[in-house]
């Protein structure tokens, strides 16, 4: 495969922004019509594009620079398995979607002032185990990262408005580490062959995503952005300190998916992660006391 899913230096201030097109192999961050069309974000979204943005994600978390905040409460997580709807190949990653018409599934507490409803979750991963997570910790990259995306229904009438609004989204992030097989993840892995190509979709029965969370509740939190278009700076990130273990074969199964739709040349879905962005003076807070380093 010759496709390089890395953003060439100097090109990533633009994103492709045409709906319903295959993923752009150049800009990484979004769809484009043919891989050669590159357009700037619409003016109305200019303030949320990377260009000029000061709160972009992902970032590297430096443990020694994070600040313990004793006022941070434990995160309260309550997901209704029955609100799980479907799993689909977006052409960039696979995503599991939830019915967010009611309050039944969501998170509150932690750094959040409101209850945020679960909308979807998805993963980012690498072509090899040495890379794949979007966030890093002290420069360490994990093979994959889970993002559970929630929106602030107390402040916004719809997800689409929350995406672009102040404190509109809360994304709960979990690192995946190669180790023991993860039984709950396997339910998703088993469905992946049904959604191998872009735009393929499969129904999901009840599924509780809290089974994908680590036992330890310690987290870091900071203000950032979506890592895919529109890169809106509306996200309160909550990043679990403890990774969850998954089998190497389970991450390998992610890599069998394709960016490409049925009937087109096969492009394996790997390295669907945005490069780290500058911290720009932001403070990363931790819910836990840092370890003393010898
Ligand atoms: Zn993501």
UniProtKB/TrEMBL annotation:
Record GO terms (molecular function): carbonate dehydratase activity; zinc ion binding
Keywords for this protein: Lyase, Metal-binding, Zinc
Enzyme Commission number, as recorded: 4.2.1.1
Domain of life according to the entry: Eukaryota
GO CC, one annotated term: mitochondrion
Substrates-to-products reaction catalysed: hydrogencarbonate + H(+) = CO2 + H2O
Cofactor: Zn(2+)
Keyword hit for Lyase: yes
Enzyme class: lyase
Cited InterPro entries: CA_dom, CA_dom_sf, Carbonic_anhydrase_a-class, Carbonic_anhydrase_a-class_CS
Ranges of residues in domain Alpha-carbonic anhydrase: 35-288
Functional summary from the UniProt entry: Reversible hydration of carbon dioxide.
Protein family membership: Belongs to the alpha-carbonic anhydrase family.
Record-given protein name: Carbonic anhydrase
Species of the source: Ictidomys tridecemlineatus
Source lineage: Eukaryota, Metazoa, Chordata, Craniata, Vertebrata
């Amino acid at each position: 495969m010759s496709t390089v899913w890395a953003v060439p230096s100097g090109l990533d201030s633009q994103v492709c922004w045409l709906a319903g097109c295959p993923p752009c192999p150049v800009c990484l961050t979004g769809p484009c019509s043919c891989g050669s069309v590159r357009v700037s974000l619409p003016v109305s979204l200019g303030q949320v594009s990377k260009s000029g943005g000061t709160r972009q994600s992902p970032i590297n978390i430096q443990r020694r620079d994070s600040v313990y905040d004793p006022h941070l409460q434990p995160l309260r997580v309550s997901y209704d398995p029955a609100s799980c709807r479907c799993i689909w190949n977006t052409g960039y990653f696979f995503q599991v979607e939830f019915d967010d018409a009611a309050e039944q599934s969501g998170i509150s507490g932690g750094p959040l002032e409101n209850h945020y409803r679960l909308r979807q979750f998805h993963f980012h991963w690498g072509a090899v185990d040495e890379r794949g997570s979007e966030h890093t910790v002290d420069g360490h990259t994990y093979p994959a990262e889970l993002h559970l995306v929630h929106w602030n229904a107390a402040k916004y009438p719809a997800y689409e408005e929350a995406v672009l609004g102040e404190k509109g989204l809360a994304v709960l992030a979990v690192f995946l580490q190669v180790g023991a097989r993860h039984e709950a993840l396997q339910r998703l892995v088993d469905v992946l062959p049904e959604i191998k190509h872009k735009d393929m979709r499969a129904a999901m029965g009840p599924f509780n995503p809290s089974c994908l969370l680590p036992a330890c509740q310690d987290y870091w939190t900071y203000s950032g952005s979506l890592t895919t278009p529109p890169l809106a700076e509306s996200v309160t990130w909550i990043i679990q300190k403890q990774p969850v273990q998954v089998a190497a074969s389970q991450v390998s199964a992610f890599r069998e998916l394709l960016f490409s739709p049925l009937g087109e040349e096969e492009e394996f879905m790997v390295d669907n992660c945005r490069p780290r962005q500058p911290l720009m003076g932001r403070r990363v807070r931790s819910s836990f006391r840092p370890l003393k380093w010898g």
